[in-house]
Design a protein that fits this description.
Layout lengths: L3 H10 L14 E8 L2 H10 L10 H6 L9 H16 L4 E9 L8 E12 L2 E10 L2 E11 L6
Antiparallel strand pairs: 1-3, 2-5, 3-4, 4-5
């Protein structure tokens, strides 16, 4: 007879789709393609309490020199974090996120997130992350994650 707790432990120990155990330097994470929609940009700005007009008002954005509204860094940060937790599992912890924005994410474009494990030290893995769109690299940086001990 299997208990709920035993089933949960078995699920937690199983690798997530695309995840190799344990992670190793040079390991490439599977890319994740995200459509950059107007809804994603506006809802991300609202959710992060960033009410600057360039993230929701196309006319105001154009008046300030932008061709359209564009994604804020907090939304990008959340998407980067989600990319890694989707790969390493819901129990991984983001310990350090150091990202930099480049080309803006405008509605109608697509961002492809990719990652490469650059270092592993015990239960910590460092991952170089890039999010590219049609204009170039939207986000680049390094994220350190603590991996769940049972999954390693």
């Amino acid at each position: 007879m299997t208990t709920d707790a035993a089933r949960d432990t078995d699920r937690a120990a199983a690798p997530h789709p695309g995840q190799e155990l344990p992670p190793h330097p040079g390991q490439e994470l599977p890319p994740r393609t995200l459509p950059v929609t107007r809804t994603l940009i506006v809802s991300g700005a609202l959710a992060s309490r960033d009410y600057q007009d360039v993230h929701h008002d196309a006319e105001a954005a154009r008046e300030k020199g932008s061709p359209d509204i564009f994604m804020n860094i907090l939304t990008t940060n959340g998407l980067v974090g989600r990319y890694l937790t989707d790969h390493f599992g819901p129990r991984c912890v983001l310990r350090k996120v150091a990202i930099r924005l480049g080309a803006p994410n405008y509605p109608g474009d697509t961002m492809v997130l990719s990652g490469t494990v650059t270092a592993v030290d015990g239960d910590l893995a460092e991952v170089r992350v890039v999010g590219a769109n049609g204009l170039g690299n939207h986000v680049t940086g390094t994220v350190t994650v603590r991996l769940e001990a049972v999954a390693r």
